[in-house]
Amino acid sequence: MHELGVVFHIIDSIEEVAKENEVSHVSKVVLEVGEVSAIVNDYLEDCWNWAVKKHPIMTDCKLEIRDIPAITFCEDCKQTYETVKYGKTCPYCQSGHTYLVQGNEANIKEIEVE
Amino acid sequence: MSTIRVIEVKQSIFADNDKTAAAMRQELKERGIYLLNLMSSPGSGKTTTLKRTIAALKDEYKIGVMEADIDSDVDALAISETGAKAIQLHTMGMCHMDAAMTRQGFDQLIDNEIELAILENIGNLVCPAEFDTGAVKNAMILSVPEGHDKPLKYPLMFQVCDVVLINKMDVLPVFDFDLEKCTEYIHMRNPNAVVIPICAKTGEGMDAWYDWLRDQIKEWRS
Hints:
The complex is a heterodimer.
Chain A: H1 3-20, E1 26-34, H2 41-52, E2 62-68, E3 71-74, E4 80-82, H3 83-86, E5 98-102, E6 106-113
Parallel strand pairs in A: 1-2
Antiparallel strand pairs in A: 1-6, 3-4, 3-5
Chain B: E1 5-12, H1 15-31, E2 34-40, H2 46-57, E3 63-69, H3 74-80, E4 85-90, H4 99-109, E5 116-120, E6 137-143, H5 150-153, H6 155-160, E7 163-167, H7 179-189, E8 194-197, H8 206-221
Parallel strand pairs in B: 2-5, 2-6, 3-4, 3-5, 6-7, 7-8
């Protein structure tokens, strides 16, 4: 349910960028969303479609989400593995000394404007 | 005909929230106000813990509380009975507090006398962990009936918290709660987290929590 809050934050940031660049309309927003970022794409899109209607500069603005897979690195055996499948414990050496390399991103990559 | 061009933004979705939060912390530092963000599941004992904490510390600090809920004002009423200044914030359905919402509440709460401000966040172990509220530190309460495996299931919450209060220690004998394991799981997520077992109902262990708060406030205001 925090997707709505996330959408409000995106819109605030984009309105600021639009103002700085003297943009009249934003037609598309590209996000990078990590697999373990706790953002559910479907919910985000629903909230998006509802929220952009209330912002004249973004009416009918499309949302494109690029998924980033989650990868974890093991400090003991120096291998990487899929985070979602194995979690914090390395599947090769069972070590818990691991950290996330990528996958918790929540970035606004670019916007298409007129 | 309009032309379409692309602007590279390359910023975190949370960038504007982080900016608001950082500005808030800066102001808190300048004004010598300590703001604590208190998080937990619903029913873990946030309000009971706060009431006892206020009773114990109200002669040392002027305390103000922001109660964030989706609806109702039962918590703010409970807190105002303690004599502390309390305001109720409604998130209108939203599952967390962010920096801008905290800022609004803070402006209503703060007069020049408040020294310790506490934000009682929405009862939820997921979303509040995602948003920096601008508080000086994050605290959370995990109660015994919830189980010792919660740090494994909600890793981000435990990662962002500076102190974890394990509440309802009085019911430990009737639950399969392993305090040692729980502490180990918390430290797997956050090696620096301070873990304090308490019982907000009986007062057991609360002195260690008050001391943690006193040290924090002293350090922040120095």
